[in-house]
Design a protein that fits this description.
transmembrane helix, Cyt_c_biogenesis_CcsA, C-type cytochrome biogenesis protein CcsB
Length: 334
C-alpha cells in the first residue's frame, strides 16, 4: 500500500471505531435501562422470592414466581447487553489501533503517529480504551462502561472535526528518539489520569446524589445507574490507585524525558514555553493530590476536586495551549 492509501485507511478506521464505540454506548445504556427492574442484590432477591414461593400457596405463590421470573429475565438482559457492549468496545479498540498504526505508516518516511494534536489525541484515547479493558475484570468496571464509551465517542468526533491535519513530515526538532520516549510516557499517563478523573467526577456526582436521597424506604423506586456505581470509598480508592500509577510516568515524561529532548532540539533544558509551564502546573496539582491524600488524610470530596483540577490542567495543556498560545509556543505543532 502507498502512503496515501494508509492515510485513507487510518481515516476510515477512525470512522469505523467511532461507530463501534457508539454501538457499545447504546448497549451499555440498554444494560442499565434493563437493570432498573433488577434489585441491587439480584441473587438475594431471587432466593427470597423462591423461599416465599414454596412457603405460600395460591395467589401469593404465583406472584412470587412471577417476580422471580421477571428478575431473572431482566438480569439476563443486563448481562447480555453488557457482553455486547464489551465486545463492541474490544472491536473498536482493535480498529482504533489500526487507525493509529496506519497513521504512522502514512507518513513518508514512516514515523511515530503523534506529531500533532490530532495524532496525540487519537493515540491517547486509545490508551484510555486499553486501560479500561485491562482493568475491567480486576476492578469490576461495568459501572464505568457508559462513561468511557461516551467519552471516547465524543473525543474522536471532536478530534476528527476540529483537530484533523493531513499527514506531514516531522520537522527537525521532532527527529529524535527522545520524542518517542517523551510522548509515549505522556500518552500513558494521560490515559491513566483520564480514567482516574472519571472516577473522581462520579464520586462528586454520587456524593451529591446520596445527600439528596432522603429516606430511601419512604417511596419505592426503580434501581438507577448511580445505585450500581460503587460506594464512595471504592470510587476514592480506585481513583487514587490509578493516579498513583500515572504520576511517576508523568514525572518522567514532563520533568526528565521532556527536558532532555528540549536540550537536544533547542539547546536548552527549560525555556518557560507555555506547554512546559502547564506541564509543570499539572505535575504540581497531581503531586499535591497524592501528597494530601497520603499524608494529610484528604480523602473523598477534597481529593476528588483536586484530581479533577489536575485533569483540566492536563487537557488544557494538550489542547488549550495551541488555541490560546499557539503562535508563541515552540510546541505549536503539537
Amino acid at each position: 500500500m502507498s502512503h496515501a492509501q494508509f492515510e485513507v485507511l487510518s481515516n476510515q478506521a477512525v470512522a469505523i471505531c467511532g461507530a463501534f464505540y457508539f454501538i457499545a454506548l447504546l448497549a451499555h445504556l440498554a444494560e442499565w435501562a434493563a437493570g432498573r427492574n433488577v434489585p441491587l442484590d439480584a441473587d438475594a432477591a431471587a432466593d427470597a422470592a423462591a423461599v416465599s414461593g414454596t412457603a405460600s400457596a395460591g395467589t401469593a405463590s404465583a406472584g412470587s414466581a412471577d417476580t422471580l421470573v421477571a428478575v431473572q429475565e431482566s438480569t439476563e438482559k443486563m448481562e447480555r447487553f453488557a457482553r455486547w457492549g464489551l465486545v463492541a468496545t474490544g472491536v473498536a479498540a482493535g480498529v482504533h489501533l489500526v487507525a493509529v498504526v496506519a497513521r504512522g505508516l502514512a507518513a513518508d518516511p514512516i514515523r511515530v503517529p503523534w506529531g500533532n494534536m490530532y495524532e496525540f489525541t487519537l493515540t491517547a484515547s486509545l490508551v484510555v480504551t486499553i486501560g479500561y479493558l485491562a482493568l475491567y475484570r480486576r476492578f469490576k468496571l461495568a459501572w464505568l462502561s457508559p462513561v468511557v464509551t461516551g467519552f471516547l465517542l465524543v473525543v474522536l468526533m471532536l478530534d476528527a472535526l476540529l483537530l484533523y491535519d493531513p499527514v506531514f513530515k516531522l520537522r527537525d526538532a521532532l527527529q529524535s528518539p527522545w520524542l518517542v520516549i517523551h510522548v509515549i510516557a505522556a500518552i500513558i499517563a494521560t490515559g491513566a489520569f483520564t480514567l482516574g478523573g472519571m472516577a473522581s467526577v462520579l464520586y462528586l456526582i454520587k456524593e451529591r446524589w446520596l445527600r439528596n436521597q432522603g429516606d430511601p424506604d419512604r417511596t419505592p423506586r426503580r434501581v438507577g445507574y448511580l445505585d450500581r456505581v460503587p460506594g464512595l470509598v471504592q470510587l476514592d480508592r480506585f481513583s487514587y490507585r490509578v493516579h498513583a500509577f500515572a504520576f511517576p510516568i508523568w514525572t518522567f515524561a514532563a520533568l526528565i524525558a521532556g527536558p532532555i529532548w528540549a536540550e537536544a532540539a533547542w539547546g536548552r533544558y527549560w525555556g518557560w514555553d507555555p506547554k512546559e509551564v502547564w506541564a509543570f502546573i499539572t505535575w504540581v496539582v497531581y503531586a499535591a493530590y497524592l501528597h494530601a491524600r497520603a499524608t494529610a488524610g484528604w480523602k473523598g470530596r477534597a481529593a476528588a476536586i483536586i484530581a479533577i483540577i489536575g485533569l483540566l490542567t492536563l487537557w488544557f495543556n494538550f489542547v488549550g495551549i495551541n488555541f490560546f498560545f499557539g503562535s508563541g509556543s515552540q510546541h505549536s505543532y503539537a
